[in-house]
């Protein structure tokens, strides 16, 4: 669930069926090509590309697909120009939404996003972006004391051991890749590293409303142009709704 737990979106995507996986790969390819066109093919000097590559690898996008996307963007072959756009609004139970997209047709994209908001009881209006803070987020193994101490020494702002035994590390956006490189130098394995956003405050939800939010997020993520969906929904309520099958 994008915007709730910073890694749950990745975990849910990895469990997607083949059709959904094809859509996920297409979104990553679009992000990579857009980043290359804007800032070049060297991730060491192109933060947008570095983040796009990190997201693609976290979702197990094949290396061949990534390489072809970069080559096409450099040569202009099959790489359309995309604009980065963001949409702000509210969903069920007053949950704030921030939707990020890459589009070659703004009119089409806003119409599709508005349709989802309307269909699911939301309203594509109001300022919500201020409710989300940019952060760096990593998943690291092992989650032992040595790794945690190394992360703190490198400037991590928050640590949390996940149920699967990985260590979730939060950093300031500007420190993300320095912390990732430092942890790998210390012997840890960085499973994923991405710039993302997290809500400043959470919206408490009843089970029925949580299920509605999940359905709305899924509908938004189904749109080809949408890259990221962030919400203020309480992650515990959302996880309960997903596991209970309330989002089906």
* CATH fold-level assignment of the domain at 8-75: Arc Repressor Mutant, subunit A
Strand neighbour order, sheet with most strands? 4-5-3-6
Largest sheet features: 4 strands, antiparallel
In sequence order, what are the helices and strands, one letter per element? HHHHEEHEHEEHEHEH
Mean pLDDT: 87
Proportion of helical residues: 40-55%
Beta-strand content bin = 15-25%
Can you identify the CATH superfamily of the domain at 8-75?
Integrase, N-terminal zinc-binding domain
- From the helix content, strand content and strand pairing, which structural class follows? alpha+beta
What is the rounded Rg? 18 Å
Q: Helical segment tally?
A: 9
Number of β-strand runs: 7
Just give the CATH class of the domain at 8-75. Answer: Mainly Alpha
| Low-confidence region ranges | 1-7, 9-14
């Amino acid at each position: 669930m994008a915007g709730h737990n910073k890694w749950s979106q990745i975990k849910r995507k990895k469990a997607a069926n083949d059709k959904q996986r094809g859509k996920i790969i297409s979104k990553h390819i679009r992000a990579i090509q857009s980043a290359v066109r804007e800032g070049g093919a060297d991730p060491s000097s192109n933060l947008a590309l570095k983040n796009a590559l990190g997201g693609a690898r976290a979702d197990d996008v094949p290396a061949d697909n990534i390489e072809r996307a970069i080559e096409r963007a450099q040569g202009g072959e099959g790489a359309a120009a995309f604009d980065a756009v963001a949409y702000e609004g509210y969903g069920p139970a007053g949950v704030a939404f921030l939707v990020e997209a890459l589009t070659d047709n703004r009119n089409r994209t806003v119409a599709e996003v508005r349709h989802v908001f309307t269909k699911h009881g939301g309203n594509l209006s109001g300022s919500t972006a201020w409710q989300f803070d940019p952060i760096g987020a990593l998943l690291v193994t092992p989650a032992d004391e040595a790794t945690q101490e190394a992360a703190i020494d490198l400037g991590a702002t928050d640590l949390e051991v996940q149920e699967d035994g990985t260590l979730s590390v939060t950093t300031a956006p500007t420190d993300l890749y320095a912390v990732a490189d430092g942890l790998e130098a210390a012997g840890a394995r960085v499973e994923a590293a991405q710039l993302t956003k997290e809500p400043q405050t959470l919206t408490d939800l009843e089970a029925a409303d949580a299920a509605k939010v999940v359905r709305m997020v899924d509908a938004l993520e189904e749109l080809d142009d949408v890259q990221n969906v962030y919400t203020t929904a309480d992650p515990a309520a959302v996880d309960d709704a997903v596991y209970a099958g309330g989002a089906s």
